[in-house]
Amino acid sequence: MSDPHSLRRLRLLLVLVWLMLGLAVLAGSLMPDLGPSSLKIPLPHADKLVHFCAWALLAAFAPPLLVRFASRLAAASGLFLLSGAIELAQAFLPMRSASFGDLAANGLGIAAGTSAGILVAMLLARRSRPVAAGLAFDGGDGLFAPGEAR
Description:
Layout lengths: L3 H27 L15 H15 L1 H4 L3 H22 L9 H28 L1 H7 L15
């Protein structure tokens, strides 16, 4: 699996899946008939659960593709800003409404997903440092970039 061509294909596949998830979250957040309430989940606050899970899944893909702590933090921050922008946009869309509760669920999901992604990246790095380094977009050489605290 440490073959450079297979690593590039795996990285491309992960990025494509991540982009498709991002588009699905964006469409589900902005299109009137695709929001969390359209799923009809018979649980209290199911809407918040859907927000949490969608953003957690989206956030989990970044850490295995990024090695440096700063890159991972930037990715999580960027996702949170994107979720805030989507909530703001919903305030101006018919049949949609903005909610601080949704934003909080998004943020918690992003934190949980980023944490899970970091655990996956750590397991990958422990199992095969060349694979972990080969997946990285930010030039890192494993779990920690040179010079970063361990």
